[in-house]
Specification:
Pfam families: PNMA, zf-CCHC
Number of strands: 4
Protein name: CCHC-type domain-containing protein
Keywords: Metal-binding, Zinc, Zinc-finger
Number of domains: 3
Radius of gyration: 60 Å
Strand content: 5-15%
GO molecular function: nucleic acid binding; zinc ion binding
Strand order of the largest sheet: 1-2
Length: 375
């Protein structure tokens, strides 16, 4: 048994280097076999292909990961192209065979990339601000995408990327963002961090801020709950005191209340009383004596006593109108025939009836004596 076990161990040791070589070879083959997605440069984008921005980002990452020299990388880039883009790269490689893969991507960027001025792209980057309720990490990702375009267009140098990123991050972040406040104090006077270092610090601080907010919310809830409980207890005490006072007042009023009360005059069962004549059965607006015994003033005019009609608020009728020229009722002085007669110069009334009853509208007999003027 010992001899057989020793032979198996020796066989495993001999096979181990071969397995390692096979594993490394398979990894290299897989890395070399990775290909970019297809890009043809046709508009609209055919199904199964990617836009130029997505293809360019994948190609820039693949150039740094793929092993091999420049011609091999150029060949792999050319294999992922179709249609007009492939014809463009073939012609460029024939004219400039010494160019590397970065130059090929730059040619495609100039041909199929977004048409924007360098000044406009730089202004768009500098005017990028953090939005409301946006995390600082998301804002940093947007800045990184813009910086990548600026580097691809050769607008800024690669050694200025870190400084411009940090400067724009502090400029465009919200003034009350707790993560940005911490970063300003942390990186003051220090070297500009890379993207990985910066995003790592930002995410850590965002987690700490969330924890502090949760703790503060929990403490506020407990304090508010205790305060509400105290207020409720105080209100209950006040309600109990008010109830006790009300019950005491009710008991005192029942003890001092007499057994019977005298009936006040003018109850519901009694008839109404008139305050003008003092009789029962009617009220003063409907009093009949008001019409019968109305106050009248005796006016003596030309030896005749005339009873004045009671003053009423409504307008008089035609037969109740009095003429101040002849003293008759039924017309006015403007329509009086006696005043229009020019033959009589001195007219006077010798006798009038002692009274004129307006309600019965009796005719008033008069005897008139006239004297002519001497001619």
């Amino acid at each position: 048994l010992q001899s057989s076990l020793g032979e198996e161990a020796r066989g495993r040791r001999q096979k181990a280097p071969e397995l390692q070589k096979l594993h490394v070879g398979s990894e290299r083959g897989a890395a070399q076999g990775e290909r970019l997605k297809i890009f043809s440069g046709m508009e609209p984008t055919p199904p199964g292909e990617e836009t130029f921005e997505a293809w360019r980002d994948a190609a820039l990452v693949a150039i740094t990961d793929w092993p091999g020299s420049g011609p091999a990388l150029c060949r792999k880039i050319q294999e992922s192209l179709r249609g007009p883009a492939l014809d463009l790269i073939k012609l460029h490689r024939e004219v400039c065979p010494q160019d590397g893969p970065e130059k090929l991507i730059e040619v495609l960027e100039d041909t199929y990339g977004p048409v924007e001025d360098e000044i406009e792209m730089l202004y768009k980057f500098q005017s990028c601000m953090q939005k409301e309720k946006e995390n600082l990490s998301e804002y940093l990702k947007r800045l990184q995408q813009m910086l990548k375009l600026l580097v691809c267009r050769r607008i800024i140098a690669t050694d200025r990327v870190d400084s411009m990123r940090l400067q724009q991050l502090f400029r465009g972040a919200l003034s009350m963002d707790p993560t940005a406040v911490m970063l300003r104090s942390f990186y003051r006077g220090k070297k500009e961090p890379t993207y990985q270092e910066l995003i790592r610090e930002i995410r850590k601080e965002e987690v700490n801020v969330l924890r502090r907010e949760k703790k503060s919310r929990g403490s506020e809830r407990t304090s508010s709950d205790s305060q509400k409980a105290e207020e409720i207890a105080e209100l209950k005490k006040q309600v109990a005191q008010l109830k006790a006072r009300v019950s005491e007042k009710e008991e005192g009023s029942t003890m001092s209340r007499p057994s019977s009360f005298p009936k006040a005059g003018g109850a519901r069962g009694d008839p109404p009383k008139c305050f003008r004549c003092g009789r029962l059965g009617h009220i003063s607006p409907h009093c009949p004596t008001q019409r019968e015994n109305a106050a009248a003033t005796e006016v003596i005019s030309y030896g005749c006593a005339v009873r004045k009609p009671p003053q009423k608020r409504y307008r008089k009728r035609r037969n109740q109108v009095r003429c101040y020229t002849c003293g008759w009722y039924g017309h006015t002085s403007h329509t009086c025939d006696w005043g229009r007669n020019e033959d009589f110069t001195d007219v006077y009334v010798t006798s009038f009836p002692c009274e004129v009853d307006i309600c019965e509208e009796k005719s008033c007999g008069t005897r008139m004596v006239s004297e002519r003027k001497p001619s």
